[in-house]
Specification:
2 copies of one chain form a homodimer. Chain A is an alpha/beta fold. Chain A has 2 domains: 112 residues, Response regulator (Rossmann fold); 95 residues, Arc Repressor Mutant, subunit A, CATH 1.10.10. Chain A has 8 helices and 12 strands. The longest helix of chain A is centred in the last third of the chain and has 19 residues. The N and C termini of chain A lie far apart (43 Å). At the A-B interface, helix 4 and helix 5 of A face helix 4 and helix 5 of B. Chain B binds a DNA duplex through helix 8.
Chain lengths: 229, 229
DNA sequence: CGCATTTTTTACCGGTTCCGGACAACAGAA
DNA sequence: TTCTGTTGTCCGGAACCGGTAAAAAATGCG
């Protein structure tokens, strides 16, 4: 069963033309859309305007190393392809955010299978465009939120928090997870800020909807309150 | 700081005791909760009552083959471990739903990294890490506990204790182990405190369920009481 | 540059939870 | 039984956490 309908876009980042061409050919034969980049800087440039569903990243790159661009990729699964077979390399790359690691030379059938595995994941691929929860509606494209029709003006952070909470209703979101998602690269110690943001968000929602929507779980984090009609 | 709170449960399905024991030891050292099963049928039986966060599945199993139980697992990532290195095996297993595939012998560091990759996934909305025992249900998602449907409000420590006890039902948990897991950053948290926590936990469960669920083993520790219907 | 908005820090309060001692109740050994 | 070590529970103080307001710092905008 091939992906003949749901053609996903795969981004090949590889300076080696021969391997890249072979991959492109195989992937296209499988019905995938293919993007190409031949250096790390080029890859980042492409990623600024396009959002592929999967990235095949060769580590040996001119200019920016693969290791350096991996942390800059967010929300897209990355399969690292490398000639290095040492465990240290695999471990460090996987822990740095890679979704999988294949050693050259590899069997293309296995690569194709592992690509399917990644694309099968409904994680970030289709970022839900609209969320709805007990009167709160949140649209991703317009970045607007309304409670029972009344528009509510939220700041960027408040919006991010609410989105994360509404994406997993009735599930506790850890404070650490919230902090990671909201302010990506601050080392630590803004747990107090989170409290303030939650407080402000609560207030705005309460002013618009008349009730408190966010529940705090002592010592753990926050969740959307279960509302019974 | 280490993730003391979010210890995930990993389910090892392997009939080979030596490999299984080694895995269990390593995983526990990493702070994971471990479940074991030694056959396919046993694995399915366990999965009816518990929902781990990840499954390590050895293909060579007595009775039900690993291939047969893989399709029955839904919503939990499965890392297949097998001695067969042929591409056909990898491909078929990956396409059948496996999240990853490791060939024996493998480097445990790589396995640990790949486990992290799977657990890192903002997992399927499905309820992971749910435990059920004689009317007590404990869900990791909502961080809530209920006895025969009645919600019980537990402290963070109480929750941790109960989770540890319920993860290994009818097995004595030593006081020292409980102390290690619960207050990771207190040098030697007094044993008297643990007694208090257990006492409070007992009281809350008793108030909701009408009976005492925790049994104390003189001089050793605690375990869940065996309850006959 | 000045101004407005947003984010972060700081401080404080009230409530929750934890700790560890005290002491009675209990189980096991002699 | 008596003695000894363990367990269950009560309790006060300490430490911690969460909510909010106000100030300070950072950011965006014209």
């Amino acid at each position: 069963m091939k992906n003949t309908q749901n053609l996903s876009t795969i981004f090949i980042i590889d300076d080696d033309a021969s391997i890249g061409n072979m991959l492109e050919e195989i992937l296209k034969k499988e019905g995938y859309q293919v993007l190409r980049a031949y250096s790390g800087t080029e890859a980042l440039f492409v990623l600024e305007r396009q959002k592929p569903d999967l990235i095949l990243l060769d580590l040996m790159l001119p200019g920016l190393d693969g290791r350096e661009i991996l942390p800059k990729i967010k929300g897209i699964p990355v399969i690292v392809i490398s000639a290095r077979a040492e465990t240290e390399d695999k471990v460090s790359l996987l822990l740095s955010g890679a979704a999988d690691y294949m050693t050259k030379p590899f069997d293309t059938r296995e690569l194709l299978a592992r690509i399917v595995v990644q694309l099968r994941n409904p994680s970030v691929a289709g970022t839900a465009s609209a969320l709805e929860f007990a009167g709160i509606s949140l649209s991703a494209d317009t970045h607007q939120v309304s409670v029972w029709g009344l528009p509510v003006k939220l700041t960027r952070t408040e919006y991010a928090i609410l989105k994360l909470l509404m994406a997993n209703p009735s599930q506790v979101i850890t404070k650490t997870l919230l902090l990671e998602r909201i302010s990506e690269d601050t080392p630590d110690c803004m747990e107090s800020s989170l409290r303030v943001h939650i407080s402000n968000l609560r207030k705005k929602l309460r002013d618009a909807g008349g009730q408190d929507y966010i529940e705090s779980v002592w010592g753990i984090g926050f969740k959307m309150k279960e509302i019974e009609n």
